[in-house]
């Protein structure tokens, strides 16, 4: 991506009214109702920096022999080198576009111990990044901006699908529609891996929710719900974000019935409403619910 294009990208992602999304403020404008361009690009850098650290770290730790000895295909590590180079290019371009207010990478605590646990984690994080990019796509009010943003998003979706399917032997997609996540939902998923950020970074208006866990989810069956200790779960609702729809299920006796049409990944939050899951109602999150399905569409 060209630097000049990203300048356009940065300057053209302009203020948007935020009726259906969390309000964010931009330090450059200090308006709680304006989503500023620098804030949007810094939001995307949260995910790009995380991915950059993931690929750089794993490739620095594991050789081609390590990959092969762990049962991964001979061609996989070279492709991860390509993905890593893409991430470096995207981080550099977005950072240049934001300028001196660009956030710098944090320290990360990434739970992989082997090449294969790295590729599992990469599948999850690359999916979260796609969902985050998709979530901010509504702010692209200009056609040039929208094209550039879509260009990055589609490359990242290819990365995610390649990691999921030929490498990890899971499903490459979930359904006809990918899932867009709102700022704080996406941020919560990234923040769990961040173990300290430079104090010089500008403060961004995103917060992580208290934790939520849904154990051993199987479509159509009850699963145990647990949350941070000061969050009351009983009688509240789990909202499952899947594609462009949200399914609400009440928590009863500490359990939630996983929607029986679940396929692929859903992102779940605890909400006080049976029909709304946004910053005004979300109490805890985000639990990822993965229901694998095979080439015949059968759940595994
Ligand atoms: C931003 O605006 C709010 C409301 O007017 C004000 O209280 C706050 O001090 C401002 N912050 C900065 C950094 O200017
Ligand atoms: C990141 O980790 C390094 C090495 O442990 C440490 O020196 C540094 O202070 C950490 N930075 C932050 C912002 O936590
Ligand atoms: C997970 O759920 C399935 C189906 O209900 C059950 O057979 C299995 O024992 C459960 N596993 C754990 C670890 O609870
Ligand atoms: C729950 O605990 C967390 C951290 O311990 C705290 O930040 C949060 O404000 C608490 N929430 C409530 C509703 O008390
Ligand atoms: C899925 O759940 C809905 C609502 O509980 C129910 O009406 C439907 O019959 C279920 N479908 C299957 C295939 O179990």
Automatic annotation (TrEMBL):
The keyword Calcium does not apply. It holds the Pfam family Ferritin_2. Coiled coil: none annotated. Keywords: Signal. Residues 1-18 form the signal peptide. This is Ferritin-like domain-containing protein. InterPro entries: Ferritin-like_SF, Rds1. SUPFAM superfamilies: Ferritin-like.
């Amino acid at each position: 991506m060209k630097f000049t294009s990203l300048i356009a990208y940065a300057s053209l992602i302009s203020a948007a009214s935020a009726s259906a999304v969390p309000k964010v403020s931009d330090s450059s404008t200090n308006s709680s109702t304006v989503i500023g361009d620098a804030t949007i690009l810094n939001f995307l850098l949260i995910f790009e920096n995380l991915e950059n650290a993931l690929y750089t770290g794993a490739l620095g730790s594991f050789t081609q022999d390590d990959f092969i000895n762990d049962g991964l295909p001979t061609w996989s590590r070279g492709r991860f080198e390509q993905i890593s180079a893409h991430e470096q290019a995207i981080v550099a371009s977005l950072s240049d576009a934001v300028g001196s207010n660009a956030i710098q990478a944090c320290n990360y605590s990434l739970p992989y111990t082997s090449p294969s646990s790295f590729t599992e984690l990469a599948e999850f994080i690359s999916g979260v990044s796609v969902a985050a990019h998709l979530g901010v796509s509504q702010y692209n009010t200009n056609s040039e901006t929208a094209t550039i943003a879509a260009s990055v998003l589609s490359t990242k979706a290819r990365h995610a699908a390649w990691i999921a399917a030929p490498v990890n032997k899971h499903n490459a997609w979930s359904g006809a529609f990918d899932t867009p996540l709102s700022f704080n939902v996406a941020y919560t998923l990234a923040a769990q891996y961040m173990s300290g950020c430079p104090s010089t970074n500008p403060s961004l208006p995103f917060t992580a929710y208290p934790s939520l866990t849904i154990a051993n989810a199987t479509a159509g069956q009850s699963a145990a719900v647990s949350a941070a200790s000061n969050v009351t779960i009983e009688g509240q609702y789990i909202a499952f974000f899947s594609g462009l729809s949200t399914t609400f299920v009440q928590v009863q006796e500490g359990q939630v019935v996983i929607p029986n049409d679940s396929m692929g990944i859903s992102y779940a939050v605890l909400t006080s409403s049976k029909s709304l899951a946004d910053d005004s109602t979300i109490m805890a999150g985000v639990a990822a619910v993965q229901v694998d399905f095979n080439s015949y569409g059968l759940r595994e």
